[in-house]
Amino acid sequence: MNWERIPLGALQTNCYVVWNEKNQCLVIDPGEEGEKIISFLKDKQLKPLAILLTHAHFDHIGAVDVLRERYSIPLYVHEKEAKWLLDPALNGSQLFMMGEMIRLKPADYVLTSEDTLQIENFSLELFATPGHSPGSISFYIKEMNAVIAGDTLFMGSIGRTDLPGGNHKELLASIHDNLLVLPEETAVLPGHGPETTIGNEMDSNPFLNGF
């Protein structure tokens, strides 16, 4: 199993492409610059199977419909943020006024619980990690020894909680209960910035000290 981090847009939001030996892939959080993602998929000769969202803030969803129209692939999002795709006031594109307001087509699949999501031979464990936003989820891929954590946990930091639906106490509980229980060598692939590991954040993240 292989993966690539592709920073996109003004906020350099990390899009992740995960692919297998059959050159099938998943695209996670395509925030902007759809043509840049398409170019990467062409260069690697990858066949996308689905788009997954860690959450539905504007900087994580901007290229969703570009990819759906190009490849006719389904979109997965948590039920608590399914309506955010259609509403610029909820997804933040209206608040931040960075370019056009984002109104997407409805999701094809709405995730309702913590479970294992199976797409072809991709197996992803879903962890509810609210706090940054109500429907934030993290995707743990055991075979890859990595968790794609969205804006929940960063290298040396945590997600902001001052946006609508954010909750600092809930965010810390999500990290402690669902992420820090993973093996310490697990790679953390965040929504912005470089990757880290669970062990590194347990040892040195100042926001987690004493929790």
Descriptive labels:
211 residues, alpha/beta, Metallo-beta-lactamase, Chain A, 6-stranded mixed β-sheet, 7 helices
Q: What report would you give on this structure?
A:
The protein has 211 residues and is of the alpha/beta class. It has one domain (2-204): Ribonuclease Z/Hydroxyacylglutathione hydrolase-like (Metallo-beta-lactamase, Chain A), CATH 3.60.15.10. It contains 7 helices and 14 strands. It has helices at residues 34-44, 58-61, 64-71, 88-91, 93-96, 168-179, 198-204, and strands spanning 2-8, 13-19, 24-28, 47-52, 75-78, 109-111, 116-119, 122-128, 137-141, 146-150, 153-154, 157-158, 187-190, 196-197. The protein has a 6-stranded mixed beta sheet, covered by helices on one side. Helix 1 (34-44) links the parallel strand 3 and strand 4. The radius of gyration is 16 Å and the shape is globular. The protein starts with a strand and ends in a 7-residue tail after the last helix. The mean pLDDT is 95.
Q: What are the low-pLDDT stretches, counting only 5+ consecutive residues below 50?
A: none
CATH topology: Metallo-beta-lactamase, Chain A
The CATH architecture classification is 4-Layer Sandwich
The residue-averaged pLDDT reads 95
**Main β-sheet description:** 6 strands, mixed
Which structural class do you get from the secondary structure elements?
alpha/beta
Distance between the termini: 34 Å
Number of helices: 7
Domain module count:
1
Number of strands: 14
Q: Helix content range of the residues, please?
A: 10-25%
Instruction: Write the element-wise H/E pattern from the N-terminal end onward.
Output: EEEHEHHEHHEEEEEEEHEEH
The CATH homologous superfamily is termed Ribonuclease Z/Hydroxyacylglutathione hydrolase-like
Question: What is the global morphology?
Answer: globular
CATH class: Alpha Beta
Percent range for β-strand residues: 25-35%
Strand arrangement within the widest β-sheet reads 1-2-3-4-5-6
Computed Rg: 16 Å
Pfam families: Lactamase_B
Domain Metallo-beta-lactamase: 12-192
Organism: Bacillus seohaeanensis
Protein name: MBL fold metallo-hydrolase
